[in-house]
Hints:
By secondary structure, the chain is of the alpha+beta class. The protein folds into two domains: 3-68, no CATH class; 126-201 and 240-375, 2-enoyl-CoA Hydratase, Chain A, domain 1 (Alpha-Beta Complex). The protein has ten helices and 19 strands. The chain has helices spanning 9-17, 28-46, 94-114, 149-163, 180-190, 210-213, 220-240, 280-290, 355-360, 364-375; strands spanning 3-4, 7-8, 51-58, 61-68, 116-117, 122-123, 125-130, 136-141, 167-171, 195-196, 201-203, 241-244, 247-250, 257-258, 268-273, 295-298, 308-317, 324-332, 349-350. The strands form six sheets. The protein has a six-stranded mixed β-sheet with strand order 7-8-9-15-16-19, with helices on both faces. Strands 2-1-3-4 form a four-stranded antiparallel β-sheet. A hairpin with a 2-residue loop joins strand 3 (51-58) and strand 4 (61-68). Helix 1 crosses helix 2, helix 4 (149-163) runs parallel beside helix 5 (180-190) and helix 5 (180-190) runs parallel beside helix 8 (280-290). The longest helix is centred in the N-terminal third of the chain and has 21 residues, at 94-114. It starts with a strand and ends with a helix. The mean pLDDT is 91.
Amino acid sequence: MLxxxxxxxxxxxxxxxxRFASDGFNQTLQNRLVGRNFSTFYFKEKGxxxxxxxxxxxxxxxxxxxxxxxxxxxxxxxxxxIAPEPKPIIKLSKAKKKQNRIxxxxxxxxxxxxxxxxxxxxxxxxxxxIGKDSATAYIKIRGFNNGNYRKFYKKSFKKLDSxxxxxxxxxxxxxGGGRIAEINYLYSYLAKTKYQFMAPAEVNRRLSFFPxxxxxxxxxxxxxxxxxxxxxxAVDNLLKTKKQDGKLxxxxxxxxxxxxxxxxxxxxxxxxxxxxxxxxxxxISTHLKATKRAVFVGEETGGAYNGCVAGLYxxxxxxxxxxxxxxxxxxxxxxxxxxxxxxxxKPNVEITPTISDRLSGKDPELEWILSDISKN
Length: 376
């Protein structure tokens, strides 16, 4: 695709990249985000249009197609003179009703454990063995913000331990992050030695929790709850916030040194990342890269190696435009740093899928890992 109307697609992409921020000098997040949301960015800039002239290129041929918007037809009820026969009511036996109830309960339980995503009809967490035996396992995590993660990880690493699995592939591609509690729990199964998961979070005030909940976008119920709970929250903030080198730091439970969990995995570990891996997925990746625990394959993460502003957020509505601004209130970091600053976790083996790979359904990053495993 070369042009939309009279605008070069390359110019549109450059413009869309300026619509959002990226961590430091990172480019992979911008490429991925524009790639996934190009039509959304175009619509927000141009609005509804009746037709669109598109210039395409195929091999050495350049041609133009005009795409027209077709209004959705309203559904009309059919007024048949003869009413359809009512469907017979099937009466279920008690045993069948009980069976259906058990099946529905098990379905809800599975949805909670794996984190069902209704929009895409996918699970957040997925576990499987690759190949004929259990020597290589694959865990795909689409986010750290959905479902009962503890049960999933406990079951998964128990399977790895029982099967004596030698290789584990952790797929964090297109994982936009989520709960620190979850990545801390996951890392406890991947660590080989005692570890400190995150450094104390830098804040700009001792009572750091109040701005997140007491602002001009907070509901009345939230403000009432915060008013009632404020003495307890204030004590927690004051006890856990310390001043060091002229800066204030809030100490999370994850800042303490901990031992790996029982049945922790100690075999070979590969991690798949791309430009859409950021926030919490970048934080756990920093740990795994800094400790040389894993081989990284794919693209540089969209999230920075040296941390991000997250943890707590304040959503403030501007008085004139009514636009809402979401501001992070904590500097969240792993206890590791890299120089120069401003980059994500870079892969040991850099592989970027091509258009041909996408069209043919190939996964060159995963294929490289499986090839590397077969050599060893």
